[in-house]
Write a structure and sequence with these properties.
The structure is a single chain. The protein is mainly α. It has one domain. The chain has eleven helices and no strands. The chain starts with 13 loop residues before the first helix and ends in a 5-residue tail after the last helix.
Length: about 230
């Protein structure tokens, strides 16, 4: 079922999302953790990874709304076509970014080491910055595909670009912080990483949930994502 929404910038509430994410993960740890293990199974095959992530967000939505969240839903292929298209685009962009850097670095590295190191670093930084920019601007694309049922990649991109407008820096910081918290478990070796890694996805879902409430024009979707804390 598709929902009605407006294409507009959203207010990104980092502190609020962080608190809600911690509480949600803590109160539903077992189900979220087991759901994340199902997601890892999907990620064994790279072209199923985005599909699994989107299904995991649907899984979180069902938990948040007190519905019967089933682990089998994470293996659903309802959104396979748009997710596979997005995967191919990301793969192609990665190749496009990596190839020029590699071709530039090879001849430069053969010259004077002190000069080549700085040149390689400069070019690499430029490409990484562009990649980060595109990543942040595409932040809401998975939400659009999985939770808003947008089938067009171009439409999902345009929606995400508009939603991230005026909040690029705070979204970048939020992603950085959420990822750092996710990897805190490395202090407890591998087992700790497995326990803390789902937090990154939980944080994203909480951000998506609030964004959906902000852009929705139908009372139905507002009620679906109006969770009482």
């Amino acid at each position: 079922m598709k929902h009605n929404y407006t294409v507009q910038p959203v207010d990104f509430k980092l502190g609020e999302y962080m608190g809600k994410s911690i509480n949600f993960y803590k109160d539903n740890f077992i189900r979220i953790f087991l759901g994340f293990l199902c997601l890892l199974v999907m990620c064994i095959f790279p072209f199923f990874a985005l599909l699994g992530v989107g299904n995991f967000y649907k899984f979180c939505a069902r938990i948040r709304n007190g519905e019967g969240a089933r682990f089998s839903e994470i293996f659903s292929f309802d959104d396979f076509v748009p997710c596979f298209k997005l995967f191919l685009i990301i793969f192609a962009l990665s190749f496009v970014f990596i190839l020029p850097v590699s071709l530039f670095n090879l001849p430069v590295a053969q010259r004077d080491f002190s000069k080549s190191a700085s040149e390689i670093s400069f070019v690499s930084i430029i490409f990484y910055l562009v990649f980060i920019y595109l990543g942040v601007k595409a932040y809401y694309m998975i939400m659009a595909i999985a939770l808003l049922r947008v089938r067009s990649i171009r439409k999902a991109w345009n929606l995400s670009v508009n939603m991230t407008k005026n909040h690029f820096f705070i979204i970048f910081v939020a992603l950085l912080v959420a990822n750092l918290l996710s990897y805190l478990g490395i202090l407890l070796c591998f087992v700790g990483v497995i326990i803390t890694l789902p937090f990154n996805y939980v944080f994203n879902y909480i951000a998506y949930e609030d964004a959906l409430r902000q852009i929705s024009t139908s009372e139905e979707i507002k009620e679906i994502y109006c969770v009482q804390e």
